[in-house]
Amino acid sequence: MMSRLDLFSPSYEVARRRFRDTANEAGATLEQHPVDPGADLTIDVATLGHANPRWAVVVTSGLHGVEGFFGSAIQLAWLTRLKSGGPLPGGGAIVLIHAVNPYGFARLRRTNEDNVDLNRNFLDTRDSYTGAPAAYAALDPFLNPASPPSLLEPFRLKALWHIKRNGLPMLKNAVAGGQYRFPRGLFFGGYGPAAATRIMQQHLAAWLGGAQRTIHIDLHSGLGAHGRYRLLLAESMRPSQSEWYRDTFGSEVVEPLDSVDGTAYDASGTLGGWAMRHLSDTRYRFVGAEFGTYPILRVLGALRAENRAHFFSRPDVGAFRRARNELLECFCPHDRRWRELVVAQGLAIIDQAVRSQTTE
Ligand SMILES: [Zn+2]
User: Fold this and answer.
1) Which of 104, 156, 325, 337 is deepest in the core (most CB within 10 A)?
2) How many angstroms separate the alpha carbon of residue 219 from the centre of ligand 1?
3) Does residue 105 share a domain with residue 57?
4) 112 CA to centre of ligand 1 in angstroms
5) Which helix (H) or strand (E) is 158 found in, with range?
6) Total domains in the fold of the chain
7) pLDDT tens digits, residue range 104-135?
8) Domain residues for 314?
9) Same domain, 209 and 274
10) Does the predicted model carry a pTM greater than 0.85?
11) Ligand 1 centroid to 52 CA: how many Å?
12) Is there a domain that residue 127 lies in?
């Protein structure tokens, strides 16, 4: 097996080619769904295993664009292991969905071509794409200044002041929970379903191939302790419902939505919430696997600076390059140890999910 470090691709194009090639060599059925007319940006789907599966394990990468560098590495690690004789248990299907937001992956953004956070874009009705939490609106001038990023600005101090004033849990929910009013702002959920959202909504049920039970692992990075992960549940649930997740993945890593000081926060329009509400022909279970990188203020600062650079800097200036590099570092650190850890842990989560399906 190739070294875990080699699994990290230098660009979206390379990642996509390696995903397709390795999936082919591993005997997968491949689909490509373009999100742009040029077809250079595609969601690629590899399906392996039984044609009429009893169960399915779904693994998505790059819902948040730039996070795809790390998610793609985990998917490639799994395919590479299978190709070199790794186990594919009978009776089920593995569905690997590569680069749900290919634009963001290719352009090193977390959002899509319309600055939309796709994990806030899966709303049930057209008229719900509106409004913003009052606290977000109040923070808009701080979060989204209409000017290029500045190295001189005391961002940390300002952020700490807001945290002291409002409390971190309240801020997390108000800021990161999603908004539908400031199209150039952070965590904008869109004014309607994005191309990628429609592709997922139209095809996800078919990719499951009629499986009666599904476990979906959605790979994310940027929140939590460096090199460690938490599994965030998609919806608030009773302790009896979350018990299955604790038994399968370990209670120390499973985090319900209502935990006050954890990694999770309440969000609208998430992929997981949508899938659990709509895919009623299968018993759908979902975790957002969130791998930590750097402290939350550094990550928020990186998101804010990159967003300002995107809208208000020219691409050839140093401030733009700095902002883009810092964003990439915050969502896919270069550190060898981090990269080895996340691939090993990502594979272990997929293995736990598969084992839970085969032993049930
Ligand atoms: Zn994410």
Assistant:
1) 104
2) 7
3) yes
4) 12
5) helix 155-166
6) 2
7) 999 999 999 999 999 999 999 988 999 999 98
8) 132-187+298-327
9) yes
10) yes
11) 31
12) no
For residue 63, report the distance from its CA to the centre of ligand 1, in Å: 7
* Ligand 1 centroid, distance to 64 Cα (angstroms): 5
Ligand 1 centroid from CA 51, angstroms: 31
- Please give the pLDDT value at position 266: 66
Query: 53 CA to middle of ligand 1, Å?
Result: 29
CA–CA distance, 208 with 198 (Å, rounded to integer): 17
Q: Which residues surround ligand 1, an ion (CB under 5 A)?
A: 64, 67, 220
List pLDDT tens digits, range 49-63.
988 999 999 999 999
268-317 pLDDT per residue, tens:
899 999 999 999 888 999 999 999 999 999 999 999 999 999 999 998 88
Asked, for residue 262, whether it belongs to a domain, the answer is: yes
Average pLDDT, the chain: 92
Ligand 1 centroid, distance to 242 Cα (angstroms): 22
pLDDT at 164 over 90: no
- 166 and 270 fall within a common domain: no
Q: Are residues 307 and 169 in the same domain?
A: yes
Indicate whether 308 belongs to any domain: yes
Residue 338 sits in a domain whose CATH number is 3.40.630.10
Q: How far is the CA of 85 from the centre of ligand 1 (A)?
A: 31
